[in-house]
User: Fold these one by one.
Assistant:
Number 1:
Amino acid sequence: MIEQLEIHTAAGTFDVLAAGSPGGREVLLLHGFPEAAVEWEFQLEALGGGGCHAVAPDQRGYSPGVRPERAAEYRLEELVGDVVAIADQLGWERFDLIGHDCGALVGWAVADRMPGRVRTFSAVSYPHPTALEHAMAEDEDQAQRAHHLTTLRQPRTTERILLADDGAGLRRIFEWKVSEEHVEDYVRRLEQPGALTAALNWYRAMHLAGPIGPVSVPTLYVWGTEDVTIGSTAALATQKYASGPYRFEMLEDVSHWVPEEAPEALTRLLMRHLLAHRA
């Protein structure tokens, strides 16, 4: 049911996975770090089989055809532009947007800046960026959880650490919550020349991002209670930054890797959200 396709934009060629027929309800899914579109395999099959046209790109830096060298070329504005360019190439005027981890960060920005294009937004794991920023400043627990961001931004050193010993550092990131098959796939992708640096440049360019305001589109936020990077302070505060219809769902005993660790539970929530907002 899942096809491998290419989408050509002014920035370059994105590799994508797609399921369902064109003409179905348009759904775009954005992966996180250090993953790829295949993290949405379960959701793509379910959405495609449920009348949607679901598309998940390997995002900037993860697609070899869109892998610029400079960190500044991974600033949030560029990532938002990629989402719009992909939707335009698909001929989608409006679409449902789903993002996990850094893909959710991009999704928050798209939903804020282009609400006319986004029918609904679903964020998985990553809270509203302002809620996270405030939690990091005010909550010692969240500050400790986010300490890894400093490490990921260090040039060259982080690449050596994560790729050493056949990618042992990369493998540990997944906390043994993701299938060995997918972890192996992710590691092999990021071992390609320049690939891990490109993925890390998302973090190295974060300071270049402008503010993200409250989101007015119907929004679902899903957070796992065992997420080691995002604590309850930021998760619970996200509601303050949703000015439209908002639903918060906690998945007990689930870690940061929700789409792959709890695919059935997440997919039920996503489908319920889409069905509740058809317009």
Number 2:
Amino acid sequence: MGHLDHAAFGWLTPVLSYLMACIGAALGLRCTLRALETTGGSRRNWLITAASAIGSGIWTMHFVAMLGFGVVGTDIRYDVPLTILSLVVAMAVVGAGVFAVAHGRDRVRALLLGGLTTGLGIASMHYLGMAALRLHGTVRYDPLLVALSIAVAVVAATVALWAALNITAPLPVAAASLVLGAAVTSMHYTGMLAVSVHVEPSREALPGATTMQFIFPLAVGLGSYLFLTAAFVALSPTARERAAYASAGRTAEPAASPPR
């Protein structure tokens, strides 16, 4: 049985992965809130941004954490198409959950359906990402811990969507993001505890890309996207702020000159 190292760089990768999860959650909550203030194409665009933010944050969290993952006795490579598929699945299924909540007539039913869909999407992303691992050996999973990780993902997703619908003030949103980041990160490490590897030494070259060839550049790119999108959302006025600006502008208009 191969010895697994989940933190080859110490606390660096766990802390960074948690930070990515928090940023994705905070941005997703803010974008969902903006979507609920609008209608039509504007609502759709905000929801797509929310789904991409949450999906990117979760994916980046997972693979930043995987930068510190190693197995004694074998190198590790990643199947590039499967890794990209895990990102697409994360965004698509999270998007389905966000749209279900935003457009559902029955809030409770929509919340439960959206939380289940999004949670399963998070779990699918995680295990697709794990399926992309290439190493000299056999990977096995503890079914009980796998089930627990999926349950954590569903609960975390449901709480995230509930927060998006019910929390509007900046400080509570920040607090909810920290909690949700912790929940998603816990799901990841619960899933990793389910993993065991039986190493089979071999001199054959492993297919796929190394973490520094593929995972690291993609994680940096998605992290940059999250930071830039967060800046855009923070600087763009809300519907209430635009209404306040318009009202202030009308109040400040000088009285019309009387006709001569």
